[in-house]
Amino acid sequence: MKVTIYKSFKFDSAHRLTGVPPDHKCAAMHGHTYELIVYITGKVDASGMVIDYADLAAAVEPILRQIDHKVLNDVHGLHNPTTEVLAPWLWRRVAAALPGHPDMSVEVKESSTTGCFYPARRL
Questions:
Q1: Beta strand 104-109 pairing with 30-43
Q2: In this structure, are residues 60 and 94 in contact, taking their beta carbons and an 8 Å threshold?
Q3: Given 26, 32, 35, 116, which residue is catalytic?
Q4: DSSP E strands: which ranges in the chain?
Q5: Is 32 a catalytic residue?
Q6: Which of 28, 30, 71, 113 is the most exposed place for a label (fewest CB within 10 A)?
Q7: Does 107 participate in catalysis according to the annotation?
Q8: Do the Cβ atoms of 120 and 103 come closer than 8 Å?
Q9: At what angle do helices 53-65 and 83-97 cross, to 10 degrees?
Q10: Distance separating alpha carbons of residues 97 and 71, to the nearest angstrom
């Protein structure tokens, strides 16, 4: 049986968007409490799980420490950190930390009404 499980994580970061006009409100430095949701689709194993949530958290938390309470523009690969740039950046790192789970997607929300979904891809 195949199912999709998910786990949600929160992190706080500041950023400014460099690809918008100077008078755009997001051109100024500002911050968000982001939500990262990691989705993993797979077969339920003998333990009754696709992956243990604790193992998922152990893989994701070191990645979030790189960006929590940081200025995203200062992080390599995030010079213009829109959610559309941040979602695949996070996906690549989570996928590398969970090589046994190729059907993994991420969703990054910068507010309760805005975000980006990055579907499963192959490394």
A1: antiparallel
A2: yes
A3: 26
A4: 2-15, 30-43, 70-71, 104-109, 115-118
A5: no
A6: 113
A7: no
A8: yes
A9: 130
A10: 23
> Would you say 79 and 73 are in contact if contact means Cβ atoms under 8 Å apart?
yes
Q: Express each pLDDT in 97-114 by its tens digit.
A: 999 999 999 999 999 999
Architecture of domain 2-118: 2-Layer Sandwich (3.30)
Is 116 among the residues known to form the active site?
Answer: no
Instruction: Give pLDDT tens digits for 52-90.
Output: 999 999 999 999 999 999 999 999 999 999 999 999 999
| Phi and psi angles of residue 90, each rounded to the nearest 5 degrees, phi first | -65, -40
Segment 3-20 mean pLDDT: 98
Which one is catalytic: 24, 30, 69, 79?
Answer: 69
Average pLDDT over residues 12-37: 98
